[in-house]
Design a protein that fits this description.
- This protein has 416 residues and is α/β, with parallel strands linked by helices.
- The chain has 17 helices and 10 strands.
- The strands form 2 sheets. Strands 1-2-3-4-7-8-9-10 form an 8-stranded parallel barrel, surrounded by 5 helices.
- β8, α7 and β9 form a beta-alpha-beta unit.
- α1 crosses α17, α4 packs across α5 and α9 packs across α10.
- The chain binds zinc ion (ZN).
């Protein structure tokens, strides 16, 4: 199983927007860009919403059937580890092995020694394919990086083997993620990590490093876009080098996590992909749930009231809701509108505050982040929330498709 050059992670908290999301990719295909859909949902999300990995498989199969999607599509066991992988087996065909917790952990000394030796065959100075620049690797630096990352690579290998035993070789896509950690990985570190994965026979097809700058949920990138450009371009070049030199799968590409709404980075990435002819996987998760809220608000009546009450509850329970996402949200409580103000908003007022349109004065990134993590409240409403989605299917779907296509796909993927 080989992933296409471009793929798009379409998370869906409540499993109701499968077709609306797929329609964005159908529109992309009609306009000349083929992008593989990947339904991703992490163990954390399943726990908060009360769903199971089999539900995601059902949603994906139903959406593909309803939309007559005849190309490959995937169900991603997102951010899995040994403790929670079992529930994802047999229903997923894409596994994101999260080994961030193993970065910096010690690996057996003899293994580290052997790995360092294998790295010493690399030239001291590597000229990366354009526009990657040069990477200098001293023995000292190799030893340092090997010491920091070998345990994580070994963890990925053992998790990969475990999944392979269940699913069979070649029957799933393997992603390795290291993004949920404090420090970004430099291109030279990425090179050594890929070398280690190759030595350990992990057929990695997508790799998710942590980039510098802040990737908060649902809002734009905060950081130095020029620094990101250098890092991203160098990473693309490292991947090309690793494929040629280490024998990793030809499909190997970067995976960008918390990728939704990073509008200031999309032109940077698009240019890099175009220049290198490289592929990309972009993961989104919560952006679609926010479009559900926008759709409900615009529908007015009881649906608008429900959207307002979800915000009011979120305001009261901010600490609890943010806790599992502490590293990926940055909310200034002083910038959040008061509950009574929101209760008096019209549907268009609510939509304008929440919709990610940086050129609009009404857009409020603090409210947007709070609602991003507030899906637990909608989950607690249970059937009431799902019925509201069903009652207002059209307006919700329209916003979901438009958001993914106009704001994400067109800006990011070359060829459209
Ligand atoms: Zn991630």
């Amino acid at each position: 199983m080989q992933i296409k050059k471009y793929s798009f992670g379409i998370g869906d908290r409540f499993g109701r927007q499968g077709s609306a999301q797929l329609n964005a990719l159908i529109k992309a295909r009609e306009n000349g860009c083929r992008i593989a859909p990947v339904w991703n949902k992490s163990h954390r999300e399943h726990q908060i919403v009360g769903t199971s990995p089999a539900d995601v498989r059902t949603e994906a199969d139903n959406a593909a059937g309803a939309c007559k999607w005849s190309e490959p599509y995937y169900v991603d066991a997102d951010h899995i580890c040994k403790d929670n992988v079992d529930g994802f087996l047999k229903v997923s065909n894409f596994f994101t092995l999260d080994v961030a917790d193993y970065i910096g952990k010690p690996a057996p000394q003899d293994q580290v020694g052997r790995f360092i030796e294998s790295c010493l065959t690399l030239p001291e100075e590597i000229s990366l394919p354009q526009p990657g620049g040069k990477i200098r690797l001293t023995g000292e630096r190799i030893a340092e990086v090997a010491g920091k990352y070998l345990a994580a690579a070994r963890r990925a290998a053992s998790l990969y083997k475990y999944i392979e035993n269940s699913e069979g070789k070649g029957n799933f896509i393997t992603e390795v993620s290291m993004d949920e950690t404090d420090e970004p990985q430099t291109p030279e570190e990425l090179l050594i990590i890929l070398k280690a994965l190759a030595e350990l026979d992990v057929p990695v097809q997508t790799i998710a490093p942590k980039f510098s700058g802040s990737f908060y949920k649902g809002i734009d990138y905060i950081g130095d876009t020029e620094a990101f450009r250098r890092e991203f371009d160098a990473d693309l070049a490292v991947i090309r080098y690793a494929v040629e030199e280490f024998g990793l799968p030809r499909e190997l590409k970067l995976s960008i996590h918390s990728g939704s709404d990073k509008f200031s980075l999309y032109p940077v990435m698009k240019a890099g992909l175009q220049h290198c002819g490289a592929g990309l996987h972009l993961k989104t998760a919560g952006t679609t749930w926010l479009e559900e809220l926008i759709g409900l608000a615009l529908a007015g009546g009881y649906a608008l009231e429900m959207a307002a009450e979800i915000y009011c509850s979120a305001l009261e329970r901010m600490e609890e809701l943010c806790e599992p996402y502490a590293a990926v949200v940055d909310i200034d409580p002083d910038r959040l509108p008061a509950a009574n103000e929101v209760r008096n908003w019209s549907g268009p007022d609510y939509a304008a505050a929440l919709r990610h349109d940086p050129s609009s004065n009404a857009y409020n990134p603090h409210l947007r982040q709070l609602l991003h993590v507030a899906y637990k409240i909608a989950a607690e409403l249970g059937e009431g929330y799902l019925d509201a989605l069903d009652d207002n299917r059209e307006v919700v779907a329209e916003n979901v498709t438009k958001n993914l296509y106009d704001r994400h796909i067109v800006r990011l993927f070359p060829g459209i």
